[in-house]
Amino acid sequence: MDNPIFFHYVTLTIFSLMLAIGVNHSFRQITYLARQPGLLVRSLLSVIVVVPGIVGILLWAFPLPPAVATGLAVLAAAPGAPLTTKRTEMAGGELPYAVNLQLTLALLAVVVTPLILSVYFSIFDLLIERVAPLEVARQIARVTFLPILVGFLIRRFLPGVAARIGNPLRVLANILLIILVLMLVVLLALVPDLRGMLNLGWPATAAIVLMVALSLAAGHLLGGPTQEKRAVLAVASIARNVGLALFLAGLTDYGQQFVPTLLTYLILGGILSVPYALWSKRRVKLEGAV
User: Fold this and answer.
1) Tens-place pLDDT, residues 103-128
2) What is the pLDDT of residues 48-65, one digit of tens each?
3) Cα(29)–Cα(108) distance, integer angstroms
4) Which residue has the higher pLDDT, 120 or 87?
5) 234 near 224, Cβ under 8 Å?
6) 3-state class of 65 per DSSP?
7) CATH fold for domain 4-284
8) What is the torsional sign of CA 186, 190, 192, 193?
9) How far apart are CA 134 and CA 16, in angstroms?
10) Where in the chain are the domains?
11) How many C-alpha atoms does 31 have within 13 Å on its Cβ side?
């Protein structure tokens, strides 16, 4: 984490992902949720209130090392994973809702992330407490809000350019994200100390499993009457932005210590969400046949 090249690569990855969102989606798409205030409130309640609340309870209830606690706190403070839309499609979720929710969360991250972190490190002993909330907000604005705004402007004033670069930019951003994950896997393979930290112990593993399961349940219950919407909110609730979490890790001298927690959540979250996605897809088809 103290490698400046790695940190700059993470920054580039997040910037490109957010730019791709801005170029491929218009600002008007935010009105999808604005026209459904009840769904908007439930969505934000699940992703940025209930999930951080669940994590807060887990941090209080489990004897977690500071590095693990910090990793879970940073994940809870980083909603809006870039690949949420793709994961939602696999679960049969409503695509316009998924796109709009992802876009909304990406824009709100500049306020939501430092706010949640400030609450956490005022209560718990976290390794990231050395990072000032305003500094976090400034950095996130630079790598999330700014590129989305630039993407919106390109789409608004240069629609031809946006049409040409939209899909290639999205593919490039996803490739950068995949390479980032592979880099972390290689790092774990080459650094024995870091690999050893991936063995988090049963309390940490149990806390992560509970975080995934309870977040999934919260999103499902708050998603509304149809499975298409429930699937979107359930996936969005567990799909934390690991790229943004890695960026936040790079802002502190102790970031490398909680990277194993981020990777463990990424792995377990992906595995545990598969049964729900399969069940959800079948449920959506059954509802569509009625």
Assistant:
1) 788 778 888 888 898 899 888 877 76
2) 999 999 999 999 999 888
3) 15
4) 120
5) no
6) coil
7) Na+/H+ antiporter like fold (1.20.1530)
8) negative
9) 23
10) 4-284
11) 3
